[in-house]
Amino acid sequence: MILINDPKDAPPGPKVVAIGSFDGVHLGHRALLARALAAARERRLPLLVYTFDPPTKVFTQGAPVLTTLSEKAELLAGAGAEIVLAVPFDAEFAKRSKEAFLSELAELEPATIVVGEDFRFGRGREGGPEDLEALAPTEAVPLLALGGAPVKSSRIRALLEAGDVEAARHLLGYPYRVRGVVVPGDQRGRALGFPTANLAVPRQKALPPGVFAVWAERGGRRIGGVANVGVRPTFEADGARRLEVHLLEPVPELYGEELSVEFVARLRPERAFPDQAALRRQIQADVAAARRRLYGD
């Protein structure tokens, strides 16, 4: 898979082009991508996915991201994309007219274009699928509905903000994951008898609040764990949401290594405790609950 950020760097020749923010590459996106991939295979053309970095709502509304660019590129490649064009979405791009967008899109030599039925583009969202027909035959794929509502990135963000990682998994089609480099913490978990790996997570990445049973992956090895996402209200807190993971199996030193955390189930919301002894008892209960969920212990 080729990852580029400028249309001029796209390989020459006709292509099937799928366009969208694709944040999360959820089941709705995958339905669209399946249609684009089928068209590419039928015509024996490469599939180029035109997306935005950051996703439009992240820039315009300050929404958190479900997938970083590297995560999204991996998921798009898994869905069949041969080329991913991640155009920087900034204030200048947001002001572009639909004519300017169409002119740039034409340089990609689209033979077929595939978008969602709600796709809009250009300043003030003035362009739609009907305008793309001027460049190439365009398929506007209906939104996928599950649970009585369309599968959309905004719906998944709301579920994660509520801590409902299981419902989010149902719409994503895979467990929600967060990657981060393990950095030194304040050693409070170690003092309580439950050392944690503190992850430095990209600032815009969506973090579901609460205490969770998780799988952590390091170097291809999956290890069960208990993750706390929150502001640590029992101690002095600065209000920043942090991700800390206590692993249920011994591991070598992790500082400086990347850890991927897969959210399985929420165990409870984060809350303050009257003292460290009460917190220690609760963590013991959390560990037992996570073991039951992950290992059946």
What does this 3D model show about the protein?
The protein has 297 residues and is α/β, with parallel strands linked by helices. The chain has 2 domains: 2-154, 3-Layer(aba) Sandwich (Rossmann fold), CATH 3.40.50; 175-295, Elongation Factor Tu (Ef-tu), domain 3, CATH 2.40.30. The protein contains 10 helices and 14 strands. Strands 1-4-3-2-5-6 form a 6-stranded parallel beta sheet. A hairpin with a 2-residue loop joins strand 11 and strand 12 (221-230). The longest helix has 20 residues, at 276-295. The chain is elongated. The relative contact order is 0.12. The mean pLDDT is 93.
In total, the number of strands is: 14
CATH topology of the largest domain: Rossmann fold
Order of helices and strands: EEHEHHEHHEHEEEHHEHEEEEEH
Query: How many helices in DSSP terms?
Result: 10
C-alpha termini separation = 41 Å
What is the percentage of strand-forming residues? 25-35%
Question: How many domain units?
Answer: 2
Sequence stretches where pLDDT stays below 50 over 5 or more residues: none
**What is the general shape?**
elongated
What would you say about this model in short?
The chain is an alpha/beta fold and 297 residues long. Helix content is 31%, strand content 28%. The protein has two domains: 2-154, Rossmann fold, CATH 3.40.50; 175-295, Riboflavin kinase-like (Elongation Factor Tu (Ef-tu), domain 3, Beta Barrel).
